[in-house]
Amino acid sequence: MSGGWNTIESDAGVFTYLIEKLGVRDVQFEELMTLEPEELRRLGKIYGVIFLFKYPTGETRSDTPKDGSFDHDAANNLFFAAQTIQNACGTQALLSVLLNKDGEVDIGKELREFKEFTGEFPPEFRGETLSNSDVIREVHNSFARSSPFIDETQRTATEDDDVYHFIAYTSINNKLYELDGLQPAPISHGDCTAEQFPDKVIPVLQRRIGRYPATEIRFNLLACVQDLRIRAREIGDMEALEEQEDKRNAWLWENALRRHNFVGFVGELMKGVVKAKLAQGGGAYDKWVEEAKGKTKKRMEDRKKQGIASDGID
């Protein structure tokens, strides 16, 4: 990977198995479909949420946040790292939740040693240390979608690009904090116990989304919660347990697919199809090509009739 960080998706299966590979135990992520406190509460023990949104690339830093207030003292009293590299913000956001829940969550040997090593660092040095962690970077990159066409490590965003950013919200020391590595300090949103978290965080998220045009719908919210299989076993809900096991198997399959690109496979498949047509004789091959052209032409005519613009391919 040439030492770079690749883009990962905001996906519950990706995040769940990413932290498991880092050594975290009994934690998973769940995608939230509504901004309702009850949807959060039904997930049981909640450690925090990860919010993905379109980042306004032309926005400049301010001495005061648009919501809440900077808590500069907290920057040194809890785990808060400045974001120093592109594409790492997804993993940085989930670590912002988990490393502040050490003791409540088994974060594993690697992350505990990382937290202890960076404990006395200022946020900038923590961010640099995170960016240079071979272990965390390699795990992060193992969940990036494979692409034979784009070298994600070399790409930098411009103001014309759609840039997305991950941030974390969690309750620490009975306060609701917004942890965004692009900000100079954690942002406090007031008093908040772990039990109050669903009711306190939802209005903050609603206000943030409200700053965007009504047409902007590209948001994603993942809850960081205790492994839902634990509660299912505790209450003897075998149906829920089976549902969670099936979901994890599906996540494993999807993550396996992410690690592979199928361009070579498709290329070989097309070669085989063409070879088979040629073996049937030149006439069969020419007929096949003409049939394909005819179908393409018909699709374009149908699209025009429906008022759909063509893609410019003749």
Automatic annotation (TrEMBL):
<dbReference type="InterPro" id="IPR038765">
    <property type="entry name" value="Papain-like_cys_pep_sf"/>
</dbReference>
<dbReference type="GO" id="GO:0004843">
    <property type="term" value="F:cysteine-type deubiquitinase activity"/>
</dbReference>
<feature type="active site" description="Nucleophile">
    <location>
        <position position="89"/>
    </location>
</feature>
<dbReference type="InterPro" id="IPR017390">
    <property type="entry name" value="Ubiquitinyl_hydrolase_UCH37"/>
</dbReference>
<dbReference type="GO" id="GO:0006511">
    <property type="term" value="P:ubiquitin-dependent protein catabolic process"/>
</dbReference>
<feature type="site" description="Important for enzyme activity">
    <location>
        <position position="180"/>
    </location>
</feature>
<dbReference type="InterPro" id="IPR036959">
    <property type="entry name" value="Peptidase_C12_UCH_sf"/>
</dbReference>
<feature type="site" description="Transition state stabilizer">
    <location>
        <position position="83"/>
    </location>
</feature>
<dbReference type="Pfam" id="PF01088">
    <property type="entry name" value="Peptidase_C12"/>
</dbReference>
<keyword id="KW-0788">Thiol protease</keyword>
<protein>
    <recommendedName>
        <fullName>Ubiquitin carboxyl-terminal hydrolase</fullName>
        <ecNumber>3.4.19.12</ecNumber>
    </recommendedName>
</protein>
<keyword id="KW-0645">Protease</keyword>
<feature type="active site" description="Proton donor">
    <location>
        <position position="165"/>
    </location>
</feature>
<feature type="domain" description="UCH catalytic">
    <location>
        <begin position="4"/>
        <end position="226"/>
    </location>
</feature>
<keyword id="KW-0833">Ubl conjugation pathway</keyword>
<keyword id="KW-0378">Hydrolase</keyword>
<dbReference type="GO" id="GO:0005737">
    <property type="term" value="C:cytoplasm"/>
</dbReference>
<dbReference type="GO" id="GO:0016579">
    <property type="term" value="P:protein deubiquitination"/>
</dbReference>
<comment type="similarity">
    <text>Belongs to the peptidase C12 family.</text>
</comment>
<feature type="region of interest" description="Disordered">
    <location>
        <begin position="294"/>
        <end position="314"/>
    </location>
</feature>
<dbReference type="Pfam" id="PF18031">
    <property type="entry name" value="UCH_C"/>
</dbReference>
<feature type="compositionally biased region" description="Basic and acidic residues">
    <location>
        <begin position="294"/>
        <end position="305"/>
    </location>
</feature>
<dbReference type="InterPro" id="IPR001578">
    <property type="entry name" value="Peptidase_C12_UCH"/>
</dbReference>
<dbReference type="InterPro" id="IPR041507">
    <property type="entry name" value="UCH_C"/>
</dbReference>
